Amino acid sequence: MRRPTDLLSAALAHASARFTVRYGDGLDFAGRDLVATKTKVPTRHGRVPVHVYGEGPKVVHLHGGAWMMRYPQMDDWWCRYLAATAGVQVHNVDFRTGPYVTYPVSQEQAYDVTTALDAVGVSGFSSGGGMAAAVALMARDHGGPDLKVQVLGVPALDMATEKPSGHGMISDGLRGLVRRTYFPDVARRSEPYASPVLAPDLSGLPPAIVLTAEHDSLRPDGDRYAERLREAGVEVTYDLTPGADHYFLTENKTRAKQTMAMVAAEVRRHTQS
User: Fold this and answer.
1) What percent of the chain has pLDDT over 90?
2) Which DSSP string corresponds to the chain?
3) Mind listing the pLDDT tens digit for each residue in 4-24?
4) What is the pLDDT of residue 19?
5) What's the predicted TM-score (pTM) here?
6) Separation CA 22–CA 102 (nearest Å)
7) Could you tell me the CA-to-CA distances from 235 to 149, 204, 240, 267, 273 in Å, in that order?
8) What is the band of 1 on the pLDDT scale with cuts at 50, 70, 90?
């Protein structure tokens, strides 16, 4: 059951995201002058606004925010950078979030947009990283689109396993709130599209770029997923940012620039070869 206090907390996070999220400040290394356009794409859960950057092969991006913050502009800096440096057209999806919808609405909207656009890549950070992994699984399971790459940044990949978070940015309290608000059906939290790291079979997935941070409580999710993807024969590029918590790109701008350039080069290689 979703508790009224949880719904209120999630609604406040949803409404305040545009005023509170600042983790991309100083990371606009390229693409500042790109003109972004806005369109709407039909999905099984209604038409979804999408912000579009650049030209080239289509890559869908899914923002973070713990399935509560509906604010795709939080990743505007990344979408501009990727479009400008990888030569792709980035589609930043304004999918619906909790507390106004529950699993699997966000995942299905993300997949439907990816399918409608016939995208060749998908990326995401945090909860969006988990969704990017889910979209890749959906594309494999449902016959397309033919994704060439998945970018999973500090991804949330396990909604079912109870484990202590320690004292990092992603606290036990936040994890619990996300589960109760967006994944209220306990039995469904272990489904592959909710918890990709628990999927029984990871074969046949596109090459993955998995980004983790040393002190992030979600790091075990990313580490395990990268390991399981390799075991399944999937090409994996793995990068660990040392000394960083969940906002892994904000603590060292020099390191961030290197990480972002590596990801852009890999996206270009996979989507334009």
Assistant:
1) 81
2) ---HHHHHHHHHHHHHHHHH--TTTT---S-TTPPPEEEEE--TT--EEEEEESSSSEEEEE--STTT---GGGGHHHHHHHHHHH--EEEEE----TTSS-TTHHHHHHHHHHHHHT-SEEEEETHHHHHHHHHHHHHHHTT-----EEEEES----SS-----TTSSS-HHHHHHHHHHH---GGGTTSTTT-GGG-S--TTPPPEEEEEETT-TTHHHHHHHHHHHHHTT--EEEEEETT--SSTTTS-HHHHHHHHHHHHHHHHHHH--
3) 787 777 777 787 777 677 777
4) 67
5) 0.95
6) 26
7) 10, 10, 17, 13, 15
8) low
Cα angle 78, 83, 84 (rounded to 5 degrees) comes to: 100
Phi, psi of 266 (to 5 degrees): -70, -40
Residues 6+ positions from 221 with CB-CB distance below 8 Å: 130, 155, 156, 157, 158, 197
* Residue in the block written with tokens 């650049």: 54
- Structural domains present in the chain: 4-271 (3.40.50.1820)
CA dihedral in degrees (94, 24, 55, 270; nearest 10)? Answer: -100
Closest CA to 249 of 226, 227, 223, 216: 216
Q: What is the pLDDT of residue 59?
A: 98
| Average pLDDT for the chain | 93
Mean per-residue pLDDT for 239-253?
Answer: 93
